[in-house]
Amino acid sequence: MRPRSRTRRAGFAALARIAAAAALAGTVLAAAAALAGTVLAAPPAAGAPRGANGASGARCLPSLLSKHTGTVHIDFWESMVTANGTTLRGLTDAFNASQHKVRVSLVQQRSYTTTWLKYQAGLSNGQLPDVVQLTSIDLQGVADSRSVTPVQSCMAAAHYKTSDFIPRVLAAYELDGVQIGMPFAVSGPVLLYNELVLAKYGITSPPRTLGQFVTDAEILKAHGSGVGLKLDPWHLETWLASANLAFVNHRNGRRGRATKAVFDTRVARKIWGDLDHMVRSGAASTNPATGPEEYDNLLGIGSGRYAMTIDTTAVLGTVEAVLAGGHYPNVKLGVAPFPVYSTKLRGGIEVGGSALYISNRQPAIDQAASWDYISYLDSTRSQAIWATGTGYIPIRKSSAKTATVKALWKTSPGYRVAYEQLVGGANTYATAGAVLGPYTQVRTAELNAEKSMYQSGVSPSTALENATRQIDQILAQYDQRIGS
User: Does the structure show a pLDDT above 60 at 61?
Assistant: First the structure.
């Protein structure tokens, strides 16, 4: 393999950073969620039924738009850049040209984190958009703000059918039986590997389970290769979901506010024990999920240092573009499903990505216009265009059947893997993902505990105990801060 030049490394990292900043879901952390208590309304008591989870008492009235004689102008705060931004602009231009009732202006933020920060500030200063795009970990914070009209109200009023959507995608943005946000840009974790290296060392197929992942890593280590393990806090949550186990109480925070972590189990100890063994044995090396080394797991596949890694589907387009440039001729990229905890347990992979929310601080006619636009973005045709232009997962089953998506999957079959992960498996509270207000702090506690194993020799069981205790404190402090 050619030596990796500084230019190639910088080019790859820059491209990957752009893709990741625009599209990471479970791994992009809204850094100021801990500040939510200064602007959020007081929620119901901990553990109590929450109805629409405090999102809004407002009622969506889509019919207002048909009776309106003028043009309604709405703003959409979004965080899409490069190809993703180009595709979104194309869809928005097409929507604006398709009718005369609504005109959408895109207001691009630098990242999901920036969008959430700005939105929280807007709760105090009144400067809020009509539609906002936020990640999956922001759901509880959005609900606690009581600043949005649940899209289910729009669905009911418009007799909108959701049977065509992937059920788990809808479930990810549902609280207490109410659809709060409309899923839009959906991604998920997959296994990325070099087919040439695995075949060379007798590994005939990529690992399907965590146990096989560990075994294959040891085989690769014996031949001077190994696994790149990005230090992302969603590792534990994803493997638990694959075993159909919740992360927090009250059905993962979806039928009552989460007050306790419930993940310190035999399964969790096995998950962290296996990962710790890989790192301690030298079969895997870790790198940070942020900063200048955040893509070393991907770059390591290019250099030959690693043969496998786990990352989000959001980087697939960038990785394929770099490989097409001929910089890494000894790499034949393979994409496989996330290696689940066990094939004997029927769980599923959590949904990553973002959803669209309608502000209830705007006039009813603006909310009706916002619903009209959101419906367009989530139509069969738009989702097919979106998936093809960005690499995100089409969230409608009908979109996956279009010629557009079929052509994409034929030329780039790796994109189909994440879709099939979400269509398959169980649809439960565990696989819908946890709902937490101070999610950023919680994941920081997870990450610190995991790092303590690798860097300080703390045992997996002790690390889990420490994480559980810290997370319980974080949840209690959040509830106290916002008046629960």
Answer: yes
